[in-house]
Amino acid sequence: MQKRTYIFSTLFLSLFGALVAQETDNIGTETVTVVKPYSPTVSDAFKIKSAPSLNDSIVLQKKDINYNIFSVPVASTFTPAKGKASGVEKTPPPTLYNSYASVGLGNYNNALVDFYTSREFNRGEDLLDFGLIHHSSRGDMDSTPLDTEFYNTKLDASYAKKDRYMDWGASLGLQHQLYNWYGIENGEFAETTVADMDEQQNYFNAEAKAHLNMEDSFFKKGNVLLRRFWDATESAENRVVVTPTIELPITEELITIGAKLDYVGGNFKNASLSNTANDGEINYSLFQAGVNPSLLILRDDLTVNLGANFVYGMDTENSDSDFYIYPAITASYRLLDENVIAYGGIEGDLKQNSYHDFVNENPYVSPTLTILPTDQQYIGYVGLKGQLLSNVGYNIKGSYTAENRKPLFLLNPENLFRNDESSYYYGNSFQVFYDDVKTLGIFGELNVDVNRNFTLGINAEFYDYDTETDNPAWNLPSIKGSVFMDYQINDQWYMGANLFYVGERDDLLAVAQENATPSEFPAAIVTLDGYFDANAHLGYHFNEQLSIFVKASNIANSDYQRWANFRVQGFQALAGVSYKFDF
Questions:
Q1: Residue 148 class from Cβ within 10 Å (0-12 exposed, 13-18 middle, 19+ buried)?
Q2: Could you identify which of 149, 218, 441, 467 might form a hypothetical disulfide with 399, taking C-beta atoms 3.0 to 4.6 angstroms apart as the criterion?
């Protein structure tokens, strides 16, 4: 107690003395300069030993143990098995064969032959291909007294070479086609007249092509076509087409300049069937030179191609020429990524027509045609395309086209004043009628990939025509549509089918008169009914090389008219075998 009182007394007196000193003494002000900054240090904390020593009699003391190892050698024959990495079972890659052959036979004496082989050289840098296709039918139809047989045989050979910065190639094609002008009905002419008819026509084609593609060069590509086409009536045609393309990148844009040199010329030994006398031949010689510059603009989701098409056309046979300027503008914009893409454009061209192209579209034309180019002033279109779902694609398009001298197929008048060697003047062949036509069109398409083995598609087209002559747009349907399906059932079985519909078409039945113009011939418009045509095929793979197949055509067994007075064969079935091999 006294000790505590002493401590408090000492603290009190010290504090009182300090207060009195502050009140009575003035020590003034001084400047204190810190020479060295304060640098505190931290001393290590005292750590408790992890194994403290205990001085306790209860703790048991460990005893020392002495031990020795007695080694005895042991003979061992054990051999550990080597480890083996487990692998994933892989599907073996399909074997690729360089050759293919297919043969099929069916009713109407239908025959199909398809052969193809390809050879590689220099580690795939050189490629040599050969192909042969033959399709024929020797059956007759009850609707006509004339022969209806046809066949089409085509042989192709090509060579291609690919380097690092360039690839080029050349090909040669030969083709022979046989058709008959069988478009007359039973009882229409006397049996003696029918017996004297020579309704057969043969077409021959020989063509050579070459192409050149280059990388890292302003010259991008070029194509050349040389063709000789002729028939059994001494009609002949020559065609030469050269189309080079160059590309010039300027800053971030790309300028493409395409050029075209196109010549077609030939002659028909027979005069038009609008003439009652076969007293002259038809000659034609048409040349085109064109250039198509365009600027490609890419901006995020927008793609625009701005261009124009300049064409100089010359009719050397009639000493006539003209210069044409056409638009060449296209654009597309991604509204919703790949789901909705808007596109549109306005384009035009001077389209070169030829006897060869007309025959491929309608083999029943007469060798008395007038060949003129088509002035496609413009075709404007807008549309939407994209993906409704991940496996459903669509395309919708509306278009408006203005064409001058559009070729339309029209029945030749029945001209019994003629006595040509070939019998195409009985109203059983077609001419080409040129008209100025404006066309409004709507197109829709839907494609569905149900899975990787099953695809389904449907499309439809609707057209409205306005002609300068106020005639119907001869043989052009106002509606077309098709449905197709392909299904790989399993590794062995596969099948497919397609159904298409063509709407009504108009044609003209006329009879030639002496000393009269074609517009004065007695004539009547005939409307051809629309038609459905269903086709299907089924096949089975025995192995990677051998397969069999069955094809069915015109399953509904309809004798519809594809062209006026030309009915088609009924139900057709064809079975065959295909084989792949190395040659």
A1: buried
A2: 441
What value does the CA radius of gyration of the chain take, rounded to a whole number of Å? 45
Buried b (16+ CB within 10 A) or exposed e, 49-71: eeeeeeeeeeeeeeeeeeeeeee
417-465 pLDDT, tens digit each: 999 999 999 999 999 999 999 999 999 999 999 888 999 999 999 999 9
3-state secondary structure 513-582: CCCCCHHHCCEEEEEECCEEEEEEEEEEECCCCEEEEEEEECCCCCCCEEECCEECCCCEEEEEEEEEEC
In 3D space, the residue among 105, 127, 132 whose CA is nearest the CA of residue 116 turns out to be 132
Dihedral sign from CA coordinates of 553, 554, 556, 559: negative
Q: pLDDT digits over 532-548, tens only?
A: 999 999 999 999 999 99
Q: Cα–Cα distance between 27 and 24 in angstroms, integer?
A: 10
- Give the tokens for residue 202: 């043969």
Global pTM value: 0.83
The amino acid present at 344, given as its one-letter code, is G
159 half-sphere exposure, CB direction, 13 A CA radius: 5
Distance CA 374, CA 367 (A): 20
Cα–Cα dist 483/499, whole Å: 5
Short-list 153, 170, 152, CA closest to 161: 170
Q: Please give the DSSP secondary-structure letter assigned to residue 414.
A: B
- Average pLDDT value over all residues in the chain: 88
CA distance linking residue 300 with residue 433, whole number of Å: 47
* Structural contact between residues 154 and 174, judged by C-beta atoms closer than 8 angstroms: yes
Q: What is the mean pLDDT of residues 301-311?
A: 95
DSSP E strands in 59-165: the ranges are 99-106, 110-121, 126-137, 150-162
Q: Which residues pair with 159 in a beta bridge?
A: 128, 170
Q: Which two tokens mark 207?
A: 């063509």
Q: Which of 468, 228, 211, 200 is nearest to 354 (CA)?
A: 228
Higher-confidence residue: 27 or 477? 477
In angstroms, rounded to a whole number, what is the distance separating the alpha carbons of residues 177 and 152?
4
Q: pLDDT tens digits, residue range 94-139?
A: 678 899 999 999 999 999 999 999 998 887 789 999 999 999 999 8
CA pair distance 277, 20, nearest whole angstrom: 153
Give CA–CA dist 341/37, Å, rounded: 73
pLDDT interval class at 24 (50, 70, 90): very low
The conformational region for residue 67 under phi > 0 = left, psi -120 to 50 = alpha, else beta, is beta
Query: How many residues would you count in the chain?
Result: 583
Contact 126, 120 (CB under 8 A): yes
Q: Is the pLDDT of residue 14 over 90?
A: no
Which amino acid makes up residue 39?
Answer: S
Positive/negative CA dihedral, 315, 370, 464, 559: negative
pLDDT of residue 70: 58
pLDDT tens, 187-202? 999 999 999 999 999 9
Which residues does 474 contact at the CB level (< 8 Å), separation at least 6? 408, 409, 410, 433, 505, 506, 507, 508
Q: What is the amino acid identity at position 42? A: V
Residues 6+ apart with CB under 8 A from 383: 342, 343, 344, 395, 396, 397, 398, 443
